[in-house]
Write a structure and sequence with these properties.
Its cofactor is pyridoxal 5'-phosphate. By secondary structure, the protein is of the alpha/beta class. It folds into two domains: 168 residues, Lyase, Ornithine Decarboxylase, Chain A, domain 1 (Beta Barrel), CATH 2.40.37.10; 220 residues, TIM Barrel (Alpha-Beta Barrel). The protein is built from twelve helices and 23 strands. Strands 4, 16, 17, 18, 19, 20, 21, 22 and 23 form a nine-stranded mixed β-sheet that branches. Strands 5-6-7-8-9-12-14-15 form an eight-stranded parallel beta barrel, surrounded by five helices. It has a three-stranded antiparallel β-sheet with strand order 1-2-3. Strand 8, helix 7 and strand 9 form a beta-alpha-beta unit. Helix 3 crosses helix 4. The longest helix has 22 residues. The radius of gyration is 23 Å and the shape is elongated.
Length: 431
C-alpha cells in the first residue's frame, strides 16, 4: 500500500526551516545545496544548526517550570550534533558506551548523561561506571546484577532508575511501547518486586523512574496523559522506598510530521496542560524536589536535516516514472519505509532546484541497490528531472545514516555537514 505525500508539506517545511533563492535553489543556512553537493559530493546529509537551536529553544520554553531536556543521542549520534544541544543546555541520553564516548567528546559532563536500553553488556556498563555516568536505567534483573557488579569493581554506588513498562492506560504514539508484552523495562505489575530487588543491592541507589510509553507522538493530549501516568508511577516508587525521588524521566516520543495529513505537535496545547502536572509534583513532598526530564531526539534533529541525492537516470516503465539516484536505503533506511513502518509512505521530497512552475507528477525515487526495497519515494509529486539534477529528502536529521545498513553493497559513506553561521563544516568526511 502506498500513499503520495502532498507537495504542500514539503513546501511548508522548506518555508519554515530553509529557503529558496531567486533561482529556485534550495538553501540551508543561506548556503545553496547545489554548491554543497559540488564541494562535498553526493549523497550527503546536511544539518542546519540554527533549526536545531530554534527547535530546542521553543521546546525548552514550552516545558519551562516542568521539565528539563536531555538529548536522545540515538537519533543522531554525531558529536557535532550533540554539541549543539549541549551548548543550549541539554544533557544526553545514551544507549551504548560508544554513545557515551560521543557525548563526552561533545563536552557533556558524565553526570549529565543517562544510560537506557534493554541489553546493556558488562563491557558497556564497566566503561560508563568508570567514566562517572550520572544515572543508569535498569530494564531487567540480569542487568541489575551487572550494574551492581560494576559498581563494586569500581568502588562506587551507582545511581539507577527503574524503567517501567506501563499498563495499557499509558499507551500512545505511532509506535506503542507500553501496555503490551515488551523487552523494555519491568512490567508495571512487577514493579514492587523490582524495587525491593534493587534496594537489596548495596552498590545501587534507586533514585528515579524511567517511562517511555510510545514514540512519534503528535498529539499533546496523548503525551500529557502519558506524563501524568508516569508521575503516578513515580509516587508509587517513592512511597515504596520511603524517600524522595531525585529524577523522573518521562521519555521522549515527541513526533514530527512526515506524511500527508500529519499535523505538527502543538506546543501551545502542551504548555497549557502542564500546570496541572506541575501542581501534582509540588503537592507531593516525595516528588517535589525531583528533576523531571524529557529525552527527545527525533523532534530536535529531524527537521534540521536534508538528505541530498543526485539523479543518475530517469526512465518510464509500464506507465510509471522512475528516478534513479545515487542515494538510497543504505544511507536512509527510514525514508525507504523499512525502519519499522507498517504502511510504507513517502517522506516529504523536493527538487533541490525548483521546477519553475513545471507541473509535478507522481514519481518513484529509487536508489542504486540491487533490491526493490531501495525506494526513497513511491509516488512523490516532483517536477520533471534529468540526469545530474538533485533531490532533497526532508525531515532527515534523525534516524538517518547510523540507523541504516551502510555496508550493503559497499557504497561509500556519504559526507555529513553541519551548517552554522553561513559556513558548512564536514562533521563526517565522505567515504
Amino acid at each position: 500500500m502506498t500513499q503520495a505525500v502532498s507537495s504542500d508539506l514539503a513546501a511548508a517545511l522548506i518555508a519554515k526551516n530553509f529557503s529558496r533563492d531567486e533561482a529556485g535553489i534550495l538553501r540551508v543556512g543561506g548556503l545553496p545545496l547545489t554548491e554543497l553537493a559540488e564541494d562535498f559530493g553526493t549523497p550527503l546529509f546536511v544539518y542546519d544548526a540554527a533549526t536545531m537551536r530554534r527547535t530546542y529553544r521553543a521546546l525548552r520554553d514550552a516545558l519551562a517550570g516542568f521539565a528539563a531536556i536531555d538529548y536522545s543521542v540515538k537519533a543522531n549520534p554525531n558529536p557535532a550534533v550533540i554539541r549543539v544541544f549541549h551548548e543550549e543546555g541539554a544533557g544526553a541520553e545514551i544507549a551504548s558506551s560508544a554513545e557515551f564516548d560521543a557525548a563526552i567528546e561533545a563536552g557533556v559532563p558524565p553526570e549529565r548523561i543517562l544510560f537506557a536500553g534493554p541489553g546493556k553488556g558488562a563491557a558497556d556498563l564497566d566503561r560508563v561506571v568508570a567514566g562517572g555516568i550520572g544515572e543508569i536505567h535498569l530494564e531487567n534483573r540480569e542487568e541489575m546484577f551487572r550494574v551492581a557488579a560494576a559498581g563494586e569493581r569500581h568502588g562506587v554506588m551507582v545511581r539507577v532508575a527503574l524503567r517501567i513498562n506501563p499498563g495499557a492506560a499509558a499507551q500512545g504514539g505511532a509506535m506503542r511501547m507500553g501496555g503490551k508484552p515488551s523487552p523494555f523495562g519491568f512490567d508495571e505489575e512487577a514493579m514492587d518486586a523490582a524495587i525491593d530487588a534493587v534496594e537489596a543491592q548495596a552498590a545501587l541507589r534507586l533514585v528515579g523512574l524511567h517511562l517511555f510509553a510510545g514514540t512519534q507522538g503528535l498529539k499533546a493530549e496523548t503525551l500529557l496523559g502519558q506524563w501524568a501516568y508516569g508521575l503516578g508511577l513515580a509516587a508509587r516508587i517513592a512511597r515504596r522506598i520511603g524517600r524522595p525521588l531525585e529524577t523522573i524521566d518521562l521519555g521522549g516520543g515527541l513526533g514530527i510530521p512526515y506524511f500527508s495529513g500529519d499535523a505538527a505537535l502543538d506546543l501551545g496545547a502542551l504548555r497549557a496542560g502542564l500546570p496541572e502536572l506541575t501542581a501534582t509534583l509540588r503537592a507531593d513532598p516525595l516528588l517535589a524536589g525531583a528533576r523531571v526530564v524529557l529525552e527527545p531526539g527525533r523532534y530536535l534533529t529531524g527537521p534540521a536535516g536534508i538528505y541530498v541525492a543526485r539523479v543518475l537516470a530517469v526512465k518510464a516503465s509500464r506507465g510509471s516514472r522512475f528516478v534513479i539516484t545515487d542515494g538510497g536505503m543504505h544511507h536512509h533506511l527510514a525514508a525507504s519505509g523499512n525502519l519499522g513502518q507498517i504502511v510504507k509512505r513517502d517522506f516529504p521530497l523536493a527538487a533541490v532546484v525548483d521546477g519553475g512552475g513545471a507541473e509535478p507528477a507522481a514519481t518513484a525515487v529509487v536508489g542504486p541497490l540491487c533490491t526493490p526495497l531501495d525506494m526513497l519515494a513511491r509516488a512523490a509529486p516532483l517536477p520533471p528531472l534529468a540526469e545530474g539534477d538533485l533531490v532533497a529528502v526532508l525531515q532527515s536529521g534523525a534516524y538517518g545514516l547510523t540507523a541504516s545498513p551502510t555496508g550493503f553493497l559497499s557504497h561509500p559513506m556519504p559526507a555529513e555537514l553541519l551548517v552554522e553561521g553561513g559556513r558548512a563544516t564536514a562533521i563526517r568526511p565522505r567515504g
